[in-house]
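Raw record, unedited: Aminoacyl-tRNA hydrolase
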Amino acid sequence: MDTEKIINELSFKAVRSSGAGGQNVNKVSSKVVLSFDLLNSQSFNDDEKTLLFEKLKTKVTSEGIFILNCDEDRSQLKNKEIVTKRFLKLIQNALVVPKKRKPTKIPRSVIEKRIKDKRTTSEIKHNRKRPDI
């Protein structure tokens, strides 16, 4: 994964933040919206693109554009850094292919112990009955 190449393909847009904030919120566009075109990206091959679409389908639009927002800080520059780091982390985590699970064989001693325990509980319950005369 070439982060330099990916960062060059990102596009940022500054928007006014929502919510309370007084008079300053009406003047300053501190919220940053990151958008990344997954379909037309040159950074990933087809296999990686399908994996990203599969894992990040909630954040990808129907046109194949990945969108992230950040309005945590009052500074536009800090929000841009935060959203870029978050984006790279999401991409890195999505590209990790989990190891395939190999089922283990149950050891013979465990099976024998289970059968022995069943037999002992069966005998205990059998001994609770009234004897036949």
